[in-house]
Amino acid sequence: MRTSIRTAVILAALLGMGATGCAGGRTTQDLPPAPADLTGRVRLVAYNGCDEMTEGLRQAAARNVTSWGFAENMLYAVDDSAVARRATPEQQYGQQPHSTTNTHEAGVDEPDLVKTDGKRVITVTRGVLRVVDATTRKVTATLRLVAEDQSWAQADLLVDGDRALVLFEGGGIIPFGAADRARVGPGGPRYVLVDLSGEPRVLGAMTVHGQHVDARQTGSTVRLVVRSTPEIAFPPPKPDASEKDLLEGNRKAVLSAPGDAWLPSYDVESDGARRTERVGCDRVSHPDEFTGTSMLTIHTIDLAAATPFGSLTPIAVAADGDTVYGTGSSLYVTSNPRWWDARPIDVVPLPESSAAAPTPKVPPERTEVHRFDVSAPGAPRYAASGSVPGRLLNQYSLSEYDRHLRVATTSGAEVPGARRATSESGVYVLDAGTLAQTGSVTGLGRGERIYSVRFMDGLGYVVTFRQTDPLYTLDLRDPAAPKVTGELKITGFSAYLHPAGEGRLIGVGQEASEEGRALGTQISLFDVSDPAAPAVLSRFHQKESGSEAEWDPHAFLYWPATGLAVLPLQNWSGGGIAGSAALALRVGDREITTLGVVSHPRSGATGGFAPADPGIRRSLVIGDDLWTVSDAGLKVSDAATLADRAWIPFS
């Protein structure tokens, strides 16, 4: 059985899976105490051979298995939050200036549901890839990639020239036309390569056994990061079995599992043939300390190669991973082994005189950071590892600048039910070559946690929140002595921060009452020209509303040429969604003004399936046109007046 619970307080996930074989075992050992040092370098080394790898993984996994199986998904006050990105500069393709995907780093693309090169718009919605000519505003090509009854499958795109890689993150995706096949893959994330040079056609595909973490693209090279758990069959629990008996049975299953149980597998379809491959044990590395309950794999695909799936050389690390950050030369993958912990936690009772609830004793939080060199084509090269206290919010908590990596984390985030807030945040500066710490500034937002982070060259901006929103400005130009230079306290919070020209910063989040209750979408314009005195210049507030841009800034568009800012806005009335449209604002040097809203028509159900959702997900600019994207279609509007110019329905 296999069960996963995403957001909870101290919940265990049941993650037993089918085995691929058996080998001899040995007795179990007690789990050693966790290390106390939370900051420093982490050594990552390769195994000398398959036997050493198998034994090392068996012993680590046996120490971390529980009576429920691999319960590394036990959470402590986890809060699913946004992945934030930075808009790249405008580019010129032909005669049409156009916006691009709102990414963290210029020159490093990220997967999204729509891409444009200024001449065409490429989208993937409800399992269908479409190409639209930007001049004629007509659909010129369509390709269904999954069976129609799997139109729920969410997918993103990465594009290089006339090659598109479609990323289906969910498991169990059945390729279109493959319903009669006895076997279509291991049921994990599926990556499909499509040729767009003529009538779209599938060139190949890869299906991996695991969970998609993220992907980054530089030039034509894509790096896919996947997380997997060992394929071990745990004995079925007996009704009268004790916790000790269950644990002992699971440990014996782990200690007798073959090395292949840990080696990530993937299916490749290329040139009309299918093959199953595994990561070789000579390409697996491990930190000094690891749980043995998960593996990170980095796959490299060159979209411009004649046979992109012809020869794959993935590398793997015996570690967890949940956040990916990339630059032109580095790929960072982070994990937090003390947060994802298989062991139960203690509840420390308070003195009898106190009426407060018991405070759960949470294991120390430590984020491990692994850096891979991706400056050359082909498989990445491991470069260094390190660790910092606390937990990241998202990829925007990381930033490489001037040969250093800045990392913003929150430590001691409060557990729901506890009445004592012990959290605080900090920024740690690491040498990018060794990931050894060179400096830090801590003590930010005591009793609060980070809601958004933005690093821009030698400066940094951190928003923490519990009842009010302190916006901290930081001077990071001296890596050995980072410091807070200013602080602004206002109601509400910014969940995403976006640069808006010299000395200006846009915040997207929620207004809140003085007690910290969210009151609706708020867009703020900050003056950060004086790092010692950040100030609010203007605000837009829409009551009873929210925006996808708060948790996925791919949904945020900022066009510097005209100050146009566009984001999806969902309005609530009586507890339900009353409408979903794109809100267009004009961001000036000192104020935010409302331009208007764009909405899509609602379509009816077809073929017995649910109607397409007209809620707008993305916006982009091509020339003087504003394009908005929903599952129902594309609308083209005048970017200055929002007047309708064309409606392109997705049939």
Characterise this structure.
The protein is mainly beta. It has a domain at 1-113 and 154-352 and 371-376. The longest helix is centred in the first third of the chain and has 15 residues, at 50-64. The two termini are 39 Å apart.
Based on the model shown, name its key terms:
651 residues, mainly beta, six-stranded mixed β-sheet, six-stranded antiparallel β-sheet, 2 helices, disordered N terminus
Give a concise summary.
With 651 residues, the protein is mainly beta. Residues 1-23 form the signal peptide.
Beta strands, count: 46
Tally of helical runs: 2
Give the low-confidence spans: 1-36, 72-94, 179-185, 338-360, 415-420
Question: In percent, how much strand structure appears in the residues?
Answer: 35-45%
How would the global form be characterised? globular
Task: Kindly report the spatial arrangement of strands forming the biggest sheet.
Answer: 2-17-19-18-14-13
Distance between the termini: 39 Å
Portion in helices: under 10%
Keywords: Signal
Protein name: Benzoate transporter
Biased composition (Polar residues): 89-104
Region (Disordered): 86-111
